Amino acid sequence: MVSAVSPCPRESNNRELIHIHTTALLFPALNQLLPIFLLFYMAVEVYTRHPNNKLHIVTTLLFLFLSLVFLGDFLFAILPSYVAIEVLRYVKYTAVFLTLTAALYFFAYISRLRLRGLLLHLVCLAPSLGVVWLLVSPRSLVMVSVEGVRDGGFSTPFFAFLVAAVGYCFFWFFLCLFAAMRRTSTHHQLKERKRNQIILNGCLLVGCLLSVGYAGSKFIAPDGSPIADMIYAYGILAWAYAIRLSMVRYDMLSTAGKRYELLFELSPNGTVVLDDRGDIVEANGAFRKLAGIAREMRLRGLPLSALFHGNEAFLLGYRQSFEAMTPLELELELVNKAGERYEVEIRGEFLEIDGKLQSFLVMLDKTEDKNNARMLEQLAFEDVLTGLCNSRRFEAEFRAMLLDVRTHGGQLGLLLIDLDQFKWINDTLGHTAGDQLLQQVAERLQATIPPEALVARLGGDEFAILLPLVEDADEPSLLAEGLLKALTKPLVLRGTSYVVSASIGVVVAPEDETDPEVLLRQVDTAMYAAKHGGRNRFCRYTPSMNENAQEQLKLLSGLSTALEKRQFELLYQPQFDLATGQVTVLEALLHWRSPELGYVAPSRFIPLAEETGAIIPIGSWVLEEVIRQLRIHLDRGCIGLCVSVNLSASQLREAGFVDRLSELLCRYGVPPRALRLEITESTMITDMRRMHQVCKEWMIWALCSGSTMSASAIPR
User: Fold this and answer.
1) Residue 359: strand pairing partners
2) Which residues belong to any copy of the GGDEF domain (predicted)?
3) Which helix (H) or strand (E) holds 564?
4) Residue 22 sits in a domain of what CATH number?
5) Which of 118, 386, 389, 447 could join 456 in a cystine, given CB atoms 3.0 to 4.6 angstroms apart?
């Protein structure tokens, strides 16, 4: 029979001691070693992010001192008693006072209190007096062992100082946080306020945990349960993590990576990172706008093709660039998911991150730049008033079409249009009405010309039409006839209908010429031929018009000096009364005898004088000469003599015309009844309102002077 053998008492005691020793080491390892590693990691993280920043240096020291506190607790738990008390004195509690000092500096920096120089250091270094106390009076801290559980004991003065130091520090902590919260109360400091709120919550949390741990150690587990120590440890660790979180999330850690992250997010250019499948890894707000995607929509993992479906040029260019691993460069128009159109410039590069190939695309929104460029081009090549081509674009198109004619054959028609009544409407109704007239004329020209033709406003009331692909040389003339019909239809200006006409010159290249300057001179000559031929007509250029143009040039040159050189003379044509056979009136006729040109008929030079404005000084000379000669004939006894003088519209539009006329009559002592003013129908139609005003002023003057007025045409 085999009997059971009981274990040796010594062996049993050894096992029990090993179990107790293992259990005693487990809690210090959990309470102190894990926080030490975490705090050391956070200290290294903070310091490497910005080694030269004061706040980062202080935060690093704060985490290192906290790790020394936990290291002191760990060593105190495992080392022999005679060494443990020294660790408690020179490691743990020295680190406690240094932690309080570093924490004060930290809170002073984030709150930006107006503490400078010596005052700042006095406030922050006050807790470090505890280190001096421990060095001077080491017996203020002793070892206490209750039922095998070690603990630190304090002298009453030292305990009072420790409590006062902690209270002092918490006072400054909350004062600094209050100042920081107050300083960041405005909406533009919202991010900094959130940072301070996290730190405040961390302080409140650690305060609560320390209170719970203290209450538990005194009332719930007064026998030295390690649970209270764990609450202490992880409460302080939570506070340290709150500081680290606030700095990382709300930009207190100003690292190169953070700066690039800010640049990425705040960049006005759309930026997106894609993986090797073309799926989105990351995108900024500007890219979301270009893609027409709401900010809250998840983009990660979404294929790029899903955002720009239908933009085949972009997707094809991206695929080709990705396959060839070459930088992407594109300029195109994109249509996003919202249906918005953007003109973008796309630049792309490829990079390998953690062994994975990714593409980095930057989209520059060029829509506004393109619109501005188009606007500048429009201003450079388009007439702002009418929307037609301007003279600059006309010249470029004209030369290009002529080059095509010379190179490939064919014919090109050129029409030059000048409005006949524009100056009168512009002067009478004002520039606004003149602008409206030009706009309506431009619309009619656009509606009349064929699709391949180009119409331009060259300036003022002058328009030009280029008619390419002409098969028959008569096509431009047929178009000119259609334009005349379209332009003579009434135009409505300020609620009233007006009829305007035009004079059109026509040339055809290469039949007439192929040189652009020569063609422009020819079409200008043809246009003036139409105007001199009675207006409201067109003229096809003929070589004989050059002779007429040369003659016109000579007339203009001579006309400019004819008055000064006394080359004008007045002849009088009598008008008879058929019943009595007596002369009733003499009509004054102006003649021009030029030494170079010979006798020039009025029909040749009067229209030129009207166009150039020379008619005004010539007309003034005629009036004064007629009145002067009237005085001579009256002195010779021709009492009933009456002389008729033709007036031009330009003379009547001159301000003070009646005053000057009355002054001449008074100066020479000629009665008004001796002068008859001839106002032609064309003159009256030109400016009816002005005709009424002049005749009214003349009649009032004549009646007031006791005489009568005689005029062949008085509008009624």
Assistant:
1) 274, 350
2) 410-543
3) none
4) 1.20.1070.10
5) 389
